Amino acid sequence: ADAQARLSFASSFFEGQTQGSYARGEAFQAHASGGVHGTNGMTSALVGMSSARTPQELVLAVRRLHLLYALSFSVGGIPLVYMGDEIGLGNAAAESDIEAVDGRQLHRPRFDAAAWERRLDPSTPEGLVHQGFLRLTQLRRELPGLDGDVPAQVLPLAHPGVLGISRAGLFYSFGNFTGEAVELDLAQVLGPDAAAWRNVLGDPLQDGRLTLPAWSSAWLTRSVPS
User: Fold this and answer.
1) Which of 14, 18, 101, 131 is deepest in the core (most CB within 10 A)?
2) Distance between CA atoms of residues 216 and 225, nearest Å
3) CA pair distance 11, 8, nearest whole angstrom
4) Which residues contact 145 (CB under 8 A, 6 or more apart)?
């Protein structure tokens, strides 16, 4: 029952029905009893790009999108980038015959050539999103700790809103899934050699402490040979 309640809350939130929700999706296979299986929609719409009304709201939405993909790029295997996510493409226009079933048309938008051209302009939403994808892709190629044969393990962290992943002690990923900044004492996680690590995806470490802004990620790799 608790699992179903959590799923229903998440689906309602990403459908945009929960007060304060930034998401613009649709419930997936909702039942008359209120049960749901999930939510449809392009990632940009679910993280708040479609509903952003101020530059700051847009920045936070883009952070959420990059946060999700930073997690996907860091856990192993081959990352899947859904077509259009690399430029923050929004939901497709509704088509009533599909919408009446489960709304899957939302994540089937047509290719937007104009939006694709804007990916090279960092002053546009498409450019902001695309720059982040390029950075993730570059680091994914360069960091040996992200090789496919390096096992991943979830770290036991005290903060419930932060997800930490270790790739056999060669690479660490931290994601802040909250709307508030979080500071981590890396000595408690990495041990006494915390100063030997650097953040290649965000702000530098300060005296062995990592500050994660709201909805942000950090990727740590060694700055000196082990």
Assistant:
1) 14
2) 27
3) 5
4) 167, 168, 170, 171, 221
Write the CA distances from 53 to 17, 18, 38, 77, 187, integer angstroms.
18, 18, 26, 36, 40
Which helix or strand (DSSP H or E) is residue 220 part of? Answer: strand 216-222
Strand ranges inside 73-161, DSSP E: 153-154
The tokens for 63 are 């952070």
- CA distances in angstroms from 58 to 65, 86, 111, 129, listed in the order given: 11, 16, 22, 11
Distance CA 134, CA 43 (A): 17
In three-state secondary structure terms, 221 is strand
Q: In terms of residues, how long is the chain?
A: 226
pLDDT in tens, 100-137: 556 788 888 888 999 999 999 999 999 999 999 999 99
Predicted pLDDT at 102: 61
CA distance 64 to 212: 13
How does pLDDT run across 21-64, given as a tens digit for each residue? 999 998 777 655 556 677 899 999 999 999 999 999 999 999 99
What pLDDT score was predicted for residue 215? Answer: 97
Q: Kindly give, in sequence order, each residue whose CB lies less than 8 Å from that of residue 173, ignoring residues fewer than 6 positions away.
A: 70, 71, 74, 75, 163, 164, 165, 167, 217, 218, 219, 220
Mean pLDDT of 167-180: 96
